[in-house]
What does this fold into?
Amino acid sequence: MISVGVRQLKNGLTRYLRLVDQGQALLVTNRNRVVAVLKKPDPNSARSLEEKLAGLVAEGRLLPAAKPGPFKPFKPVSVKGKPVSKIIIEDRR
It folds into this structure.
């Protein structure tokens, strides 16, 4: 098992994720104290979203919706003129 510090993990995240994808397990440390274990998930233990939600409902931690309601599609508002971000920046000056 490979041990890696938080800063080192952050700086080489792609490389370490590639190792995890190959089956290696990583011990993540912060100031020489283990704070996490990073490993590839077991495909047999992965549950679907519906199974996770059903489990939360069974535990009483989630209440199902009284009635399913379709949400209206989101339509972005287009505004003419300057972008709002520029207007806010000008207003702060």
